[in-house]
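Hey, weird one. I pasted the Phosphoinositide phospholipase C sequence into the form twice and got a warning about non-standard characters only the second time. First submission, copied straight from the form history:
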Amino acid sequence: SNPLHRQVHQDMEQPLCHYFIASSHNTYLSGDQLLSQSRAEMYARVLQAGCRCVEVDCWDGPDGEPVVHHGYTLTSKILFREVAETINKYAFIKNEFPVILSIENHCSIQQQKKIAQYLKEIFGDKLDLSSVSTGDPRQLPSPQDLKGKILVKV
């Protein structure tokens, strides 16, 4: 493949909503969405392939530990903590632009608090906790402003 294709040539100073963002649906699945294995390493794979928005379906798990899987199916479950650690490790290896976690939340308040705790502990300063008002999209920060940051949308 042509190495020039891996370089960014666009102006990355525009508001985030001005860009198409490479996104992944059911990122954790290694195969079909009914029976396949959920694997944390799928996040490593898509992030290194250039994906900047990954989906994390969160459900209440045993022992107060939230899990990630495709709800109401026979897909296997993985720990949310393991997913967050994998994302943290691979988010910026190939690309410094922000990573968006698209969290589909099906958790109880207790396990939502656990998710928030893991987000803060695992991502630390990378986690962008600045609140974005959805009023005027022109006020959104740019990909350049958000380099090295992890954003959460729920």
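That's the output from the first submission. The warning seems to come from a hidden character in my clipboard, not from the data itself. The beta strands are 53-59, 67-68, 78-79, 99-105, 150-153.
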